[in-house]
Amino acid sequence: MNTGNVVWVTGDKGFVGSVMKKGLEHVGYAVVGTDAELSVTEPERLEAFAEEVQPSIIVNCAGIRRDATTLDTKAKAYEVNALGARNMAVVANTVGATIVQISTDDVYDLSRDELANEFDQPHPNTPYGKSKLAGETMVRSTTSDHLIVRTSWLYQAESGRFKEVMDAAKAGGTYHARTDQFAAPTSVGFYMYYLLKMLERGAKGTYHVTPKGKASRYDFAYKILELAGYDPEAVLVPTSDPATVENVVLESMMLEIAGADLPTWDKSLKKYMSLKGLLA
Question: Most buried among 40, 137, 222, 231, using CB within 10 Å?
C-alpha cells in the first residue's frame, strides 16, 4: 500500500507512538513524528506545525502514562491527556484531518464483573482513567471526524513485561507474575493490523482492539514461556495483592459487527511469537 497521505504521530518516542510510527511507515504512509519538543499543550505551535505539514490523519499517542499519574500529578495528567487531546482535535479540524485518539481500558472500572464493549458506559476509578476519558469526551465534542481506539496490555517482544519474562527465563532466574489482574493481552501486530484496516475503510467512532478471552498476568507469562520452550513453573512466582486486584476485559464488539473473525488471546500470542521466530 502506498497511500500518499501524511500522518502526524504525536508522542512518537513513547511505546505506543513508536509502534504506530513504524507500522504506518511499513505500509507506505508518509509519517511525521513529534514528541516532547512539540507538546500537545501548546495549541498555537501545534496549529503552525499542522499548517506546515498538512496531515490527512493525526494519531495522538501523546500522554501521561498510568504509572506516572497519581493524586499529586493528576493536574498534569488532565492537562496532557484531556486538554492535549482537545488541542489535537482542534488542529485536526483546522487542517481537515481525521484524528485517531489512542485510549485505554482504564476508562472502565478496574473491577468489572463482565466484559466491557463499546456500548457500555465507562466509569473510571483512577486519576489516569478519568483523564483519558476526559480526553475522549473532548475529542468527540470537538470533531465528528474521529476514531477513538481502546486496547489493553499491548505487548511486543522488544520491551515491557514480555521481554522481562523472556530475559528471566534465559538467565535462569525467576519472575513474579500477578494471578489476580486480568485483561486481554494484545500484540502490537494484532493492534496495527486492525488499526490499519479501520483507516483504510474510513472508520469513525469508538473501537476496542483486543483479541477474545482474558488472562491473568500469570497466565500470559505462562503461555509465553510455554510457547518459547521453557518450563513456566520453574520461572514464574505467582503473586497477588488484594489492594490492587484488576479485572477489566475489553470486548471488541464493533470489530465483530464489522465482520472481523477475532482470535483468542493465546492464539494471537502464538501467531505473534511465530512471526518473531520465538516459538520452541
Answer: 40
Q: Which residues pair with 177 in a beta bridge?
A: 238
Local structure of 173: helix, strand or coil? coil
* pLDDT over threshold 80, residue 210: yes
- Exposure string of 193-214, with b = 16+ CB inside 10 Å and e = fewer, is ebbbebbeeebeebbbbbbbbb
- Residue 184 confidence (pLDDT) above 70: yes
110, 126 Cβ separation under 8 angstroms = yes
Distance CA 200, CA 203 (A): 8
Say if CB 142 and CB 135 are below 8 A apart. Answer: no
Strands 146-151 and 154-155: unpaired
Picking from 186, 184, 190, 187, the residue whose alpha carbon sits closest to that of residue 214 is 184
In this structure, the number of other CB atoms found within 10 A of the CB of residue 73 comes to 13
Comparing C-alpha atoms, which of 9, 57, 65 is closest to residue 35? 9
Neighbouring residues of 72: CB distance < 8 A, sequence distance ≥ 6: none
Whole-number Å distance between alpha carbons of 38 and 98: 19
Q: State the Cα–Cα distance between residues 38 and 94, nearest whole angstrom.
A: 18
Three-class secondary structure of residue 54 per DSSP: coil
Q: How is residue 251 written as a grid cell? A: 470486548
**Predicted TM-score (pTM) of this structure:** 0.95
Cβ 247 vs Cβ 128: under 8 Å: no
Mean pLDDT of the chain: 96
35, three cell numbers: 514528541
Measured CA to CA, the distance from residue 45 to residue 136 in angstroms comes to 22
Q: Is the pLDDT of residue 273 over 90?
A: yes
